[in-house]
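Sat 14:20. Reprocessing the chain from the morning session after the first attempt stalled halfway. Input below, unchanged.
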Amino acid sequence: MKAKIAIASLVNLIVLNFLDLIVFSGQSNYIILSSVNLLVWLFTLVILFKTNQINITYKILTIYGSISTSFHALLGGGLYSSYIMWFLIICLGMSIFFNRSFSILASIYSMLSVSFFFYLQVSGKIDFKEELKSIPVLYDYFNLMSVLVMLAIALYFFFTKENVDLLWKKQKENQIGELEQLLEQRNLEIKKMRNEMATEFHDEMGNKLALISTYINVLQVQNYDGSPKLKDYLEKINANAKSVYEGTRDFIWTIEAEHANFYELGVYLRDFGERLFLPVDVDFMTQSLSPDLKKVKTTFIENHQIILIVKEAMTNALKHSRTKKIELMFQYTNDYVALHIKDYGVGFEPEHLNRVFGINNMKKRAEKIFSELDVLTEPNKGVEIILKYKITPNR
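Finished this time. Tokens:
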């Protein structure tokens, strides 16, 4: 687009100076100035076609155009010369199509030139009104027409589809920037709200559930008559209270904003496994968590579902596998994070997989977070559960 504007501008200036040569055929000053202008614009046009140096072309248009305008105005009416209009065109063209710095320099030069003309007029050194009387009418006509053509060229190219699309693009970018700021602010508010919810939920429900469990333990100790029925009820209530407390603790952990990545989730799962298998004769092993997992962002819903899947897998292994060793492993790629829970117990026949309620339940949870769950097993070779958490740009 800039090349087209430069070509149109140069052709317009060449035509204008050629007409000036015709109008001022008997005045040597105008002949010399218009001839020099004509040669400069022709030379610039040739350079543009041969080298396609747009920046050099615009610099010549700005620098030489401003100087030439000053000389033309000085010879042809000063403050009253129609050539003054070229200062406005140069400043406008530079600000819209080329360089803001050149536009500022052209504006400063234009103001200095006009101020100089004003000084010459006021001081009486040159009477531009008298000088204007000797200027042919065709000169002003050609010049004004050339200025209008240049203005039409600028407006035409300014409102071309390419430039309008660029303006729309910039406007959309600004809107996107504003939306991103609002989104960031909203995320900070949500993060603050989640942390406050976690704190309040822990204080209100978590502590009270722990207190209920404590009271039940006291009742069990004080059950002097040794009633089997009462003891059974107390044990069931205690087991349910502990289960609810564990679930509450999981929920509180998931909604805390600082836990929204797979590294923190891995640490939580590792700690759960250590607590679960420590009291029994099972060797629980986990690999070192890679810090790269911090790049994998998770939502509190995904955290919650993954925790439930892993807990169910570990609990099933503890109850049914009769294994002496359980491993928790993490495999990180650009496309997914694979979480492996492997035992070395009795296993089961693969064809019986669909009849295992716990496995189906885990698969449904994986589907809720758009992940995959695979189960590898053979009799007497243990069970390996693999959860593939897909990494997408939206995560």
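The mean pLDDT is 79.
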